[in-house]
Specification:
Blueprint (H helix, E strand, L loop, with lengths): L1 H18 L10 H22 L5 H34 L2
Helix pairs in contact: 1-2, 1-3, 2-3
Length: about 90
């Protein structure tokens, strides 16, 4: 349970850092944050999937919902970053 919680917190911190409206100058580039978000998502999923049988059904449903949300956020952020890079490259 402790490991599941820690991985969930890591993912939440990465989501917050990546999705917040203001990205400060000097911070890690957004594209790197998106990659880190993907890595944290994968680490949570890789831990959870083989261990989920040990958690009660209510917790399984909550974690599965959180994983789907994080996956959606990661894919949406990847798309937005690719659009931003394309617009920047085009000089728009």
């Amino acid at each position: 349970m402790k490991e599941l919680y820690q991985r969930s917190v890591d993912l939440d911190e990465s989501l917050h850092s990546t999705l917040r409206p203001f990205q400060a100058v000097g911070e890690v580039p957004l594209s790197e944050k998106v990659n880190e978000l993907g890595g944290r998502f994968n680490r949570l999923r890789e831990y959870y999937m083989p261990n989920k049988i040990y958690f009660d059904e209510s917790l399984q449903n909550s974690v599965a919902c959180g994983i789907r949300y994080a996956q959606f956020c990661h894919k949406a952020t990847q798309f937005l970053v690719s659009v931003m890079v394309g617009v920047s490259a085009a000089g728009v």
